[in-house]
Design a protein that fits this description.
Blueprint lengths: L1 E2 L69 E6 L14 H8 L12 E2 H4 L2 E7 L6 H17 L3 E6 L5 H12 L2 E6 L19 H7 L3 E11 L10 H5 L3 E4 L9 H11 L3 E7 L21 H9 L5 E8 L10 H15 L5 E2 L1
Parallel strand pairs: 2-4, 2-5, 5-10, 6-7, 6-9, 7-8, 9-10
Antiparallel strand pairs: 1-4, 3-11
Length: about 350
């Protein structure tokens, strides 16, 4: 079950703004039909009419729904950090990202994307995870996402540590079969086990390979870096067919050419985007659990996500924001912007 952030019905921001409450918020049991092309869609309220501190703390102040029915895409929080190996706090990531998302607006002038004129979007609240049992949490996540994707809704996930991507991809593969993966991270997250445990944030993609959830010839990992316990830490990944792009191969250059190659590699089959905020240099994103120096820049992050436009993106996540280490809020602000960019890159989003 998904937990609502607020009880009662969402209210529109006032006359002239054109925002309507989500159809399922007041009647969560009512099944909704997919919106007609000319039907009004949910719109984040404009700060010209509604002050940014006003309203329920949802992603971009969108209406909050209990059901994915009738939605083309939705933001979902997974406040879990039981799988972290170093600094905790990612369980507070979804809430903090939502707080910072009040700075976001409805269109993307840089890409011409009009997501809220193209798609019906809402906030589905958070998965009710079990902070005391990682296995149970993963089962809850998988079940929640199976319902979301079965409804034809593309999930955009606010993490949470990177463990959560494993059960999400279990749900994705159940509908789409093995998917391609664009994984942006400082770490490969393909360790087999740590302290005898095979389920934690350093192993989600190892588990995905074990279960056949990935189309390994269409897996690209970007931003990988850091010290290691071996001189060949990427042997496993490359032996599976992954393309591993090290951070030093991205230094001081545009990643537009790289993303052209990625689009060609991914083709028209389903692809999932998983973005760990520690892919970025800690000068830009200090609020994370396992920071590594000499990472990507925010402009390179935009190039990566915008480079996915035109691909068959079936889901996205942004993970590992740890607000206790993000005193300025800039890490969460960056995360909110990257999630908006992911929304803009989804199929069926109109661009002008």
């Amino acid at each position: 079950m998904l937990r609502l952030l607020a009880s009662g019905c969402a209210r529109g921001p006032g006359p002239g703004v054109g925002v309507r409450p989500a159809a399922g918020l007041c009647h969560p049991g009512r099944r909704q039909s997919r919106q007609a092309s000319d039907a009004p869609r949910n719109q984040p309220p404009s700060p010209e009419f509604v002050a940014r501190p006003v309203g329920v703390c949802s992603m971009m102040r969108l209406p909050v729904q209990t059901s994915p029915e009738g939605l083309d895409a939705a933001f979902i929080g997974v406040p879990l950090d039981t799988g972290t190996s170093n600094r905790p706090g990612a369980r507070f990531g979804p809430r903090r990202i939502r707080e910072e998302s009040v700075m976001l607006r409805t269109v993307n002038p840089s890409t011409g994307a009009l997501p809220f004129q193209s798609l019906m979007v809402a906030d589905l609240g958070d998965v009710n995870v079990n902070l005391y049992n990682l296995q149970d949490s993963c089962q809850r996540i998988q079940e929640a996402y199976e319902k979301i994707v079965a409804a034809g809704c593309i999930p955009l996930t606010l993490g949470g540590d990177h463990t959560i991507t494993y059960p999400i991809l279990q749900a994705m593969a159940k509908k789409h079969g093995p998917v391609g993966l664009l994984h942006v991270d400082a770490h490969t997250d393909t360790i087999d086990k740590a302290l005898g445990e095979k389920l934690y944030h350093g192993a989600p993609f190892r588990r995905c390979v074990d279960e056949g959830l990935l189309d390994c010839k269409r897996v690209v990992q970007i931003g990988i870096r850091g010290s290691s316990t071996t001189l060949d830490p990427y042997r496993y990944n490359r032996s599976q067919g992954f393309r591993v792009v090290l951070a030093e191969d991205c230094w001081m250059k545009s990643l537009v050419p790289l993303m052209g190659e990625v689009r060609q590699q991914m083709g028209g089959k389903p692809i999932y985007i998983s973005f760990d905020i520690d892919a970025l240099d800690p000068a830009y994103a200090p609020g994370t659990g396992t920071p590594e120096i000499a990472g990507l820049t925010p402009s390179q992050a935009l190039e990566i996500i915008r480079g996915c436009q035109g691909l068959n993106v079936v889901g996205c996540d942004l993970v590992e924001v740890s607000p206790p280490y993000d005193l300025s809020g800039n890490t969460a602000l960056l995360a909110a912007n990257l999630l908006f960019e992911m929304l803009c890159a989804l199929p069926k989003v109109t661009t002008v």
